[in-house]
Hints:
The structure is a single chain. This protein is an alpha+beta fold and about 525 residues long. It has helices spanning about 1-10, 40-50, 180-185, 190-200, 215-225, 250-260, 265-270, 300-310, 360-370, 405-415; strands at about 60, 70-75, 90-100, 115, 125-130, 135-145, 150-160, 170-175, 230, 275, 325, 330-335, 375-380, 425-430, 435-440, 445-450, 475-480, 485-495, 500-510, 515-520. Helix 5 runs parallel beside helix 7 (about 265-270). The two termini are about 40 Å apart. This is PhoD-like phosphatase. It comes from Gimesia chilikensis.
Amino acid sequence: MKFYCLCCLLFVFGCEQSKPTTPAPVVEQGEAAPIPDEQQAGDQHAEAHKGGPLAGMGVMVGELTPDSALVQVRLTETDKLVDRDVKGTSGVVRFTLNPVAAKGGAEIKDNPQTVEAVPDHDFIARAVFTGLAPGTKYECKTEIGKTAEHLHAGPVAHFETLPGPTLAEPVKFVVVTGMNYAKFHGDDRIDKKQHLIENNTNLPQPYSGPDKHLGYPALETILKLKPLFFVGTGDNVYYDTPDNPRAKTIPEMRQKWHEQFIQPRYRDLFAEVPTYWEIDDHDYRIDDGDNTGDHHPTPQEGRDMMLEQLPVAPMGDKDAKTYRTHRVSKDLQIWLPENRMYRSPNAMEDGPEKSIWGKEQRAWLQKTLKESDATYKLLISPTPMIGPDDLRKTDNHCDIGGFRHERDDFFKWLKENGLDQQNFFIVCGDRHWQYHSVDPSGFEEFSSGALVDANSRLGRKPGDPKSTDAKGEIKQPYYQDPRSGGFLEVKVTPAGKEQPATLSFLFHDEKGKLLYQHDIPPKK
C-alpha cells in the first residue's frame, strides 16, 4: 500500500522531486497570489511536452455505490499554477481497476478502460466501473499519454465500495462546505465593505502558515481520519469571489476548479478518499442565486460545469439527475438533494407553489424515504432547513419570506409517515459556522461550517433579532464560538451484543480538535 501511494505522489508531482522544495511565499492581506516566474513556467511547459501530458490535478473517485464507481483524471501541461490556471492538453487515459485483496463473486466490467481527454470536456477523462463487490478495497492505476500507444504511469487511486444494504459495517465520512480559495490565499480584489454586509464580519486575514502552498490544513486532517468518503455540499468553488471580476464565462468558471484542485492537499486526499458532490449558489451562479436573470453564468452553464468538473455522472450524460440517494450500509442511507436547479424564484411569495426542490424531486424524496429500511436516514442538504440564518436572506428553507412553507409541509409529511420516529436527521452546508439545532417540530440539523478558517464567521443564535428565529424557539445544544474553519465527521457503529447501532456527529476544527460530539442511539 505504501509503495503504491509513493508512486502516486511521485507521478502526480512531476519529475523534479530530487530538487529542493522552496515554500511558496506568504501572501499577506492586500496582495494578490504569487504567479510562477516565466523561466519556471517555461521549464514546466517544456518538460510536459518532453515526457507527454501530466495529471497535475491528480485523480478523483466519485459517486460510489456497492458495485460501481466513477474515476477521473484531467490531463495538463503543467503540475502547478501558471498565470492562475492549469492549462489542459489532449490525450488518453487508461484506467485499470483491481481489488487490493483477491475476492471472488464479482467481475469488473470493461476493465481496463481507455478514455480520451478532449477540449470539449476540459481534458477530463472519466471512467465508469461497474460489477464491483460491496465493501471491497480497490486500486485504480492510470496510464496517461498523447496516444494509447505512448503511455506513462499516471496517478493511482484507492477506494472502498459501499457495504450496501445487507452489511452492517462501521462507517465514517466527512461533510464540508465553504472552500473559499480567494479568502485563504488573500486575494486583494475582494470588496471588504461588501464582505462585511454579506457575512456579518470583517474580512478575516488569509492563512499565513509556511505550508500555505499545500492548501487547506483541514484536508490533511481529513486524510488522517481515513473516512470512507467525502461529501462536498456546495460552495466548492466561488465563481463570485472576488465579485469584480467574477467568473462569467466557461473558461473563467473552469479556472476556479483548476486552481482549487491543483493544491497538493486535494491531490493527496482524493487519491485515497472518494467523493460525493452537491453544488450551491457560489458554484452554480452567484451568491443566493436562483434561475432568474440574464446574467452569467446561466443556469445551464452552472449545471454543465458541475457535470463536467465533478464525478457525479458519466461524462456527457446530459440527462443526469443531480439529486440522488445511496444506501451506504445496512444501518445508513444518505440523500443528496438538488437545491438550485429546480427552484422557484427567490422573490416569489412563499406558499404552496414555491419550492426549492420542484415537484418531481419532492415526490422522489418522499418516495425513497418511505421505502428505506435503513436504521438511520440522513438528508445531506446544501442549505439549512432549521438554522437559524441571517434575517436578511430569502433563499433557504429556514428563511422568512424564503421557502418555509415547503419546509413545514415536508416536516408535516415526515411526521404523518412516522419518519420522525425512524431516525431521520438533517446535515447541511452553506452556513459558515458549525451548529447543532433542534427545531420545535423535534427534527435536528447539523451544520458542517466552513472548511476554510478565513471563510468562517460567528453565526446567528436563536433569539437574535437579526436572525430567522427572533423568538428563540429553536434549541441549540452546540454553537461554534470562537469561529474557525473545520468540518463535520459522521460515524455509524453497528449494533453489538448489548449496544444498538449508534449514529455520531463529531465537529472538528481544521487541525482536527474535537469541538463537540453528539451520539444518538436509535429510537425504538
